[in-house]
Amino acid sequence: MALNDSAVLIPGTGRVYLAAPGQAAPPDPRNPVDPWSVVGHTSRDDGLTITRDNGDSEVKGTWENPALRERRDPATWAITFQLHQLDNNTMELFFGAGDVDTVGVFGVQGSAPPVERALFVRMIDGSAEAGLYVPRVSVGSDDDISVDVENFLAFPVRAQVLQVTGSNVMEWYAAGLGKPA
């Protein structure tokens, strides 16, 4: 493998987009349009975190070879980020569906289920970009709401990656990936 300076990315800006669960990836990853919509302002300081839980790993052996094979449980993935906008979209992603029947009020329900969506993340470094597409995530609160007099109000959410039968769990988009041109 050779060094490739153009394959290094510092994602100085980015956007998080959502669509209906199972929505196909945007045809143009640099310009996601309807039915994809921007989630709103997200935290620059905390960025976006992609976590992997490997599950358990176990080495299986025989009398003749005590370390013959490794067995792993499937990995699970999650994407966490903090929402800064105080709007119905943020409230729904953090609290679940709520009561929006009164102007200026989002009523939090007792135990609303997480919200399912498709997710696309655009990571931008000048003219270089990378995209991350996940066909199905379950979005809900990830931590406490942060109220800090020196920072933006923050609603941390976790997008748990869910499997869509017969498709990739996630797909990365960038120049140089996939089949050579």
Automatic annotation (TrEMBL):
Please give one Pfam family short name.
Answer: Phage_TTP_17
What name is this protein filed under?
Answer: Major tail protein
Q: Which organism is it from?
A: Actinokineospora cianjurensis
Taxonomic path: Bacteria, Bacillati, Actinomycetota, Actinomycetes, Pseudonocardiales
